[in-house]
Amino acid sequence: MTEALAVWAPPPRLTVSEWADRFRVLSAEASAEPGRWRTDRAEYQRGIMDAVSDPDVETVVVMKSAQIGWTEILNNVVGYHIHQDPAPLLVVQPTVEMGESWSKDRLAPMLRDSPALRGRVADPRSRDGANTLLHKMFPGGHLTIAGANSPASLASRPIRVVLFDEVDRYPASAGTEGDPITLGRKRTATFWNRKVLMGSTPTIAGVSRIEAAWEQSDRRRYWVPCPHCGERQTLRWAQVQWADGRPETARYHCAHCGAGWSDAERWAAVRRGEWRAEAPFAGTAGFHISELCSPWRRLAETVADFLAAKDRPETFKAWVNTALGETWQERGEAPDWARLLERREAGMERGVVPAGVSVLTAGVDVQGDRIEVAVWGWGPGFESWLVETDVFPGSPASSEPWDALAAMLARDWECAGGETMRIAKVGVDTGGTATSAVYAHLRRSRDPRIMPLKGVEGWARAQPVSGPTHVDVTEGGRKLRRGLRLWTVAVSVYKADLYRRLWLSRGEDGSIPRGWVHLPEWMEPELVRQLVAEQLVTVKDRRGFARQEWRKLRDRNEQLDMAVYARAALALLGADRGGDAFWRRLAEREEAQRPVPPEAVAPATAVSPPPAAAPVDGIVFRPRGGAVAAW
């Protein structure tokens, strides 16, 4: 009789970490260390997981680096509630597609390989519709998987437990419904025992969602004892030392006694660590953890990544976010225009493409009485040259300025080496007072190089240029067929990128750093002022949360806007997505198309035409010299 009752007894109440140690099995395809879960493998995970099962904690915030096991923490919380504390669950990924990937690649293997979970979720092959890719039913509850970009998936059901993953990659708004985190939290309003788990790698100081949430928490940091003197401390990057150019010599040095720790000593110290709060607890437990605590990363690897990134601003920022779990502080003050004026470069002839340029893009700004354009040349590492800037007077509702712009875009641009080049992509602002007229003229232009743009505030670093979306185009009250494709640009990303590159200084030997901005001597002082006409400031909203926004220092900022549009056009060519490989492909294509000097050809050998240009990310560029390539 006792044995029979034991079979029907409810499972014992466990914390999330106790449940994981007893019931969780890591799958071979989803983990580098498959088999039985062990929380003591990364002891800092225990405090994070157990805060979820603490009745006094309503919200758990984790500001983290990569490589600390965050996804498995998320999986353990889901598994715990399916098996131990059934409830309606909602997992929110940055996009619906990422939600589908998590469901297939992470959730499904856990449900299959952990015996305590096997069979609790409805069979996906059943015909009752209880188990789909984004919705799972289990006894006592259900699991919904949503994308932060989908308002419908965030507003469908009452939820007791919400898990927000990588919140700094969320869009500013879920469609037109507003902040996705606010929408997700609203689903928990009817539950007295609601739980919210929020985790992310941070991004930019003053903009990061996870930083703002962590600042409102009790701000817990992980303290570990020194293996030599026993004094506890948090692991900080400033205490890492190594011999010049030799990351394999890296050691962490105690902040108290100065002793160097080996990796084994550091990992042993982490196993004996503890969480300590810096602020009073008021229902929100906040955790900050960096890669320095990870048992899966050797210090030499972290240092090697640092050395590879430190001289490249675009990658160094990512290293700070993903290795240290810290926000990046943008240098938002405007560079001194007078200093930029002094460092203008002689020898750059107006309208002539300098040596080193691999591709040309243009940015177009539309004003009420004129259209302005700036042509920028680009090389590896996003080194850039201002090639030309011009103004075409006239109302954007009339055809005259557009005809003048079309003539300019049709030009063959002379290169310093005597060859020619054409503009590959053009970003055109559509957000002014004459939007309908701009739409109509762009719709009729039929130039596939032209990319209509709408600038928006925000820091969508994962995808600064998004779209396209289709918009209706009207002319004289009549709707034109097939409308227009419109691209959205997170202008803050490219403004900060430009300012960061404008702040760069030459080396002691006069060498230029990666990403240098070449400003020509013919660039008038007013144009230089316009290029740095805004400043990034930190303001607080009505709830007291800090955010960053760009504010004008002077009325005229056309050169800054056009530089941003030209940079967005470069992104549409594939430069951001392709990285260094993009520039290598351009260089290889250019070399393949370079005309063969007559003296290099044997007299009896017929000269073959240069090989056809291969598309780079779908775009075929005009070669320097030779026939005009198709656009």
From TrEMBL:
<dbReference type="GO" id="GO:0004519">
    <property type="term" value="F:endonuclease activity"/>
</dbReference>
<dbReference type="Pfam" id="PF20454">
    <property type="entry name" value="GpA_nuclease"/>
</dbReference>
<feature type="domain" description="Phage terminase large subunit GpA ATPase">
    <location>
        <begin position="31"/>
        <end position="275"/>
    </location>
</feature>
<dbReference type="GO" id="GO:0005524">
    <property type="term" value="F:ATP binding"/>
</dbReference>
<protein>
    <submittedName>
        <fullName>Terminase</fullName>
    </submittedName>
</protein>
<dbReference type="InterPro" id="IPR008866">
    <property type="entry name" value="Phage_lambda_GpA-like"/>
</dbReference>
<dbReference type="InterPro" id="IPR051220">
    <property type="entry name" value="TFA_Chaperone"/>
</dbReference>
<dbReference type="InterPro" id="IPR027417">
    <property type="entry name" value="P-loop_NTPase"/>
</dbReference>
<dbReference type="GO" id="GO:0016887">
    <property type="term" value="F:ATP hydrolysis activity"/>
</dbReference>
<dbReference type="InterPro" id="IPR046454">
    <property type="entry name" value="GpA_endonuclease"/>
</dbReference>
<dbReference type="InterPro" id="IPR046453">
    <property type="entry name" value="GpA_ATPase"/>
</dbReference>
<feature type="domain" description="Terminase large subunit GpA endonuclease">
    <location>
        <begin position="284"/>
        <end position="576"/>
    </location>
</feature>
<dbReference type="Pfam" id="PF05876">
    <property type="entry name" value="GpA_ATPase"/>
</dbReference>
